[in-house]
Each structure stands twice: as structure tokens, then as C-alpha cells.
Amino acid sequence: MPIFSCVPFTCSGRVDVIEKRQCNLHELPAEVERSASCLEELYLDCNQICEIPEGLCRCKKLRSLSLGQNKILRVPPAIGSLIALEELHLEDNELSDLPEELVKCSNLKILDLRLNLLTRLPDVVTRLSSLTHLYLFETSLTQLPPDIDQLQNLRSLDVRENQLRILPPAICQLKHLRELDLGRNELSHLPLNMGSLEVLEDLYVDHNVLSAVPDSLTSCGHLRTLDVSQNDLTALPKEIGDLEQLCELSIAENRIAALPNSIGRLKNLVTLKADSNALTELVPTIGECSSLLELYLFNNQLTTLPATIGGLKELSVLSIDENQLEEIPSAIGGCSKLSILTLRGNRLRELPLEVGRLANLRVLDLCDNILAFLPFTINVLFNLRALWLSVDQTSPLVPFESAQDPVTRVKVLTTYLLPQGKCQEEAGLMHPRRVSAGVSVRFGSEEGASDEDESVGHFERKGTPHPKTRSRAVTPRRQSIDGHFIPHSDSNDNSDSTLSLRRKSAGDVPNSDGSIFQRSSQIESENSEYRSKAHHSEAEEVNGVKMPKSIMRNVSSTSRCHITIVRDAISGFGLSLAGGRDSEPFKVNDTGLFISRVVDRRTFRSSRIACRRQNTFCERRLSCRRASSCGLPK
């Protein structure tokens, strides 16, 4: 074979392919006319071309013509001379009609008219009997022609984002149609004989006003994708399980109250989006969908989950946010491949121990529940990259401490984010998150006094170190399939820093070397240095609130308080502390401590400390003493 035989041009300089996209052309390049006798493919998308010259129609061998995203107003009748044309791309121009001569392009298979202002489908289109792909996305169509069934070779029809209110019955006679996109129209119903589309594989009718799906649709045995989301459906066909090839089913944002029992027969179902409906229960047969990878049930009215959910061995994503769940079945441990589990905004009081069997779990979202603690088995989730307990949480993972369930005496885990807000509210311990600029530490002798009577100037306030608001941008929940999830890095780079942030708890038993008291002394010395550096800035602004000069003089004054907490031999100190240097949550240049958890309020009263909001211990020394005969230094 000669060395130059594969080069797509002849010695005369003529070529068979010209590609000049985004070249700011206002007319056809000169080489088109020079290569008219042999040109087969011409790509001139994204230019400034306003008309198709008659000279282009001399390209008798042209098979593919792409003129998308230009400013073409009309197609010349001479286009009918391109008898070899197979693909014509005219998307995003300013066309309103097509010439009748286009029917002479008898080999035309692909016609792309997207983003033009047609308002009606040109009559010539239904006479292009060889068409296999017709794209009419956003062309302001109000109806389809009644003779659309003449396109017997049509495989793909896209009429998304138009103003269609009704479909012609003839559309069900397109025997070779595999993909039909009717999304974002104004359809109130579908033809009753939709089941006649026997080879249909993908059907999109989302964002319409459908009140029902015809039962005949279950006869489309090759259907792989069905999207009926954002309609007005109250139920699905009872025999939807007959769609044995179905892989993706989206019924989100409807008014569906229950799933049909036959859904368990969908053995090939990979993704089920049933969020934002009126589901009150999940049918037990859901556990028979053996191929299910993603299950979205958020924003429903579910109160329980069936134990059969443990049969979803391939499940990777389970989203049940914003429901009314009070418990999770222990069978959840059977979902061994579960990677993302979101349970935000429910009424969960505890998690089953079996959650520790989710060895592949990477993200666990438990925000806005009423959890008092977590099962100790959380410790064995070695692949966990994010555990969200509060919307104010500053990092994906927080340090845990072991504790004991006072009721069952079972070992559990706790942290400064537990118990959750709803739990504290039910127990009468919940207080507003916002703290006034006044004093928040009170002593037993002042317990009966109101906040208004307390003077701001008793001691210097450094600001309660509440957890910081997450600064990362949150992806809108419906931007993607799982867009409401936060991506997390696979690396373990921050593992050491996470461990180093472990806070000291007042419930911990001090070491023999008195490490807790050494820390208290260190806080006092560090705070002395801190006062000299931060005195000026704190006098001007307290917790981000500008203060009048008269109050600033009071804020700058300081006093030292010694607080003694007696540790009970059984119940411990009855509180947990957070804050301090190298601990989380923290505030820049603030090494103060604050009470993050109250276990036994009687211990507080015996220590003459009133629990009100989150009491601030800024620049104060904390002394602890055992209740036993051997005293510890203050």
C-alpha cells in the first residue's frame, strides 16, 4: 500500500472533511467550493453564518452537514440537491420553517432542529421516511402532526420543553421507537395504547401534569428507563413488575401514597427515586429488588422500614431524610455494600447495633434527630469519612468518648454534639442557640435572678465557642441524582488531626499525674497571655456585636472565679466540657471552656452552678474534686 493512501485529501488539495467550529466565520470558507466534488463532512458549528449559499448545494457527496449555533434564518430550496445527505444539524439557529425540497434528501436519517422557533412541525418532516432520529427540543411546538406515524423508521424522538398538551394517537404506531422524550410539556394524559410501543426502551414524561399512567404501559417489555417525576400521580400501575427489564424508575415529586407489591419483581432495577411523595410505608417486597443500588425515599411520611430491606445486598445509597422514622430495623446490617446512608430530619432515638456491620459505609448523616448517643459499634466503621450529627458541625468527623447507657447499661458513644437538639427540647433542656451579649455564667446564689438584672461588666467575655457554621457550599438537593450528598476525600491525610482534636471531658477520670489539673493551670496561664493580646479587639466587639463605649469600659474589666465541681463516685461529674486549646469546637484565639452536655443536673446544683444555655468558662480555672475521702488539689 502506498504510504500516502490513507491521507484524506488528494494531491490537488481537495479534502473530504472540513471542520471549522468556533472560527468566527460569517460565510462558508473558500475551501468548501474547492472541494465540492469530494466533500463528505462539513462542520461549521458556533460561527456567525447567516445564510446557506447556493454553492454549498454542489457538494453532491456531502453526507453530514453541521451548522448548529449560527444565525441562519432560512434553508434554501437547493438543499434538495444534496441527495447523499444523511445528517443535518441545524440546532440553535433562527429557523421557522423548512423547504419542501428537503424531501428529496431521501437518505436523511438524523435531523436536529433543537432551539429554533418553529411553533409547528414543517409538513416536509413527516415525509422523510428514512428518519431515525428527530430532535425537536425547545422549538415552541404546541402539537405534533397527526400523521407522525409515517416515520416508521424513527427510533428516537425528542420533543422536550415544548407546549404540548396532547399527543396524537398515531404516535403509538411508531413500531421501531426506542427513545421517547416528552419531558417538560403540559401533557395531562398519555394515549391509552402506549403498550403498542413494543421496543420502547427509554420513556421520559417528567415535568408534566399527568394524573395517571396507562396500565398498557406495562406491556412495553423492553423498557429500561421510566421517568414520571414531577407530575400529579397518586398511584402506579399495579402490574409494574411486568417491566422486567426496567433499570431506572423515577417517580419523585408526585402524590403517590404506596408502591405496588409487584415492584419486587423488578430484578434488574438499579435506581429507584421515590422522594417527595406521600409514602407512609414501604412494601416488604422492596427487599426482593436484588440489583438495587440506589434508593431515594427522602421527604415522605414513612414511620417504619420493613425488615426485608436487609435483603438489598447490592444497595450503595439509601436516602431517607425528612421522614417520621422512629427506629431503623436491625436488618439494615444486611446491606453490606451500603456506602451512603442519610437519615436526617427523622425522629430516631437510637441506632441498632447492627449498623456496625456496614463495613463499606462512608457517609452517615444523622442531623436533626433526637439521638442521645450512638452505638459503640460505630467504632468499627473503618471506612467512614463523614458522620454528620449537626448542621453546625465544622468537620466531617468528630472525636467520640465511651459512656454507658443509664437504662440498659450498654456501652455507647457520645460526643459534644449529643444529645441532639430535639432530644434536649423534649427533656426541657433546650435553649436558644443565640446567646445574648450579657453574662451567661451564673452561680447558685444568683439562680433566682433574671438575666436582665445581671451586669455586663462583672467579667470579661470572650464569646461562647459554639460550633462554626459549615462554610462549604451545599449542593442543591435536586441538582443531580445524589447531588444533596457532600463529596468526601478518600485520603486519610486528616486522620491524625482528627485524633489530636479529642477534647478532655469532665467525665474522664484523671490520670495519676493529675493531667486534668495541669491542663487547668495551663489554661489559666495561656489566658493571661491571651488577655494582653485580645484586650483591645474584645473591647470593641463582643461576639461580633458592636458595643457602645460606655459598655466597652465594663467589658474590659476582669474578675477571677474559682469553680469547684464535686465528682460523684457513681454518676461522675454530670457534665461534659468542650473547648480549650487544640480542641473542637474552637473560636480563633479563644481557649475558654463551655458545657456541652449535662448528664446529672443534681451535680450542678451541688456545685452551685446554674445550667443555663451553654455556660462559658472563659479565662477561669476549673477545679475538680472526687467525692471520696482523698481530695484532689483545687
From TrEMBL:
<feature type="compositionally biased region" description="Polar residues">
    <location>
        <begin position="512"/>
        <end position="525"/>
    </location>
</feature>
<dbReference type="GO" id="GO:0098968">
    <property type="term" value="P:neurotransmitter receptor transport postsynaptic membrane to endosome"/>
</dbReference>
<dbReference type="GO" id="GO:0045197">
    <property type="term" value="P:establishment or maintenance of epithelial cell apical/basal polarity"/>
</dbReference>
<dbReference type="InterPro" id="IPR001611">
    <property type="entry name" value="Leu-rich_rpt"/>
</dbReference>
<feature type="domain" description="Disease resistance R13L4/SHOC-2-like LRR">
    <location>
        <begin position="217"/>
        <end position="299"/>
    </location>
</feature>
<protein>
    <submittedName>
        <fullName>Protein lap1</fullName>
    </submittedName>
</protein>
<dbReference type="Pfam" id="PF23598">
    <property type="entry name" value="LRR_14"/>
</dbReference>
<dbReference type="GO" id="GO:0016323">
    <property type="term" value="C:basolateral plasma membrane"/>
</dbReference>
<keyword id="KW-0433">Leucine-rich repeat</keyword>
<keyword id="KW-0677">Repeat</keyword>
<dbReference type="GO" id="GO:0043113">
    <property type="term" value="P:receptor clustering"/>
</dbReference>
<dbReference type="InterPro" id="IPR032675">
    <property type="entry name" value="LRR_dom_sf"/>
</dbReference>
<dbReference type="GO" id="GO:0045211">
    <property type="term" value="C:postsynaptic membrane"/>
</dbReference>
<feature type="region of interest" description="Disordered">
    <location>
        <begin position="445"/>
        <end position="538"/>
    </location>
</feature>
<dbReference type="GO" id="GO:0098609">
    <property type="term" value="P:cell-cell adhesion"/>
</dbReference>
<feature type="domain" description="Disease resistance R13L4/SHOC-2-like LRR">
    <location>
        <begin position="125"/>
        <end position="205"/>
    </location>
</feature>
<dbReference type="InterPro" id="IPR050614">
    <property type="entry name" value="Synaptic_Scaffolding_LAP-MAGUK"/>
</dbReference>
<feature type="compositionally biased region" description="Basic and acidic residues">
    <location>
        <begin position="479"/>
        <end position="491"/>
    </location>
</feature>
<dbReference type="Pfam" id="PF00560">
    <property type="entry name" value="LRR_1"/>
</dbReference>
<feature type="compositionally biased region" description="Basic and acidic residues">
    <location>
        <begin position="528"/>
        <end position="538"/>
    </location>
</feature>
<dbReference type="InterPro" id="IPR055414">
    <property type="entry name" value="LRR_R13L4/SHOC2-like"/>
</dbReference>
<dbReference type="GO" id="GO:0005912">
    <property type="term" value="C:adherens junction"/>
</dbReference>
<dbReference type="InterPro" id="IPR003591">
    <property type="entry name" value="Leu-rich_rpt_typical-subtyp"/>
</dbReference>
<dbReference type="InterPro" id="IPR036034">
    <property type="entry name" value="PDZ_sf"/>
</dbReference>
<dbReference type="GO" id="GO:0098887">
    <property type="term" value="P:neurotransmitter receptor transport, endosome to postsynaptic membrane"/>
</dbReference>
<dbReference type="GO" id="GO:0014069">
    <property type="term" value="C:postsynaptic density"/>
</dbReference>
<dbReference type="GO" id="GO:0019901">
    <property type="term" value="F:protein kinase binding"/>
</dbReference>
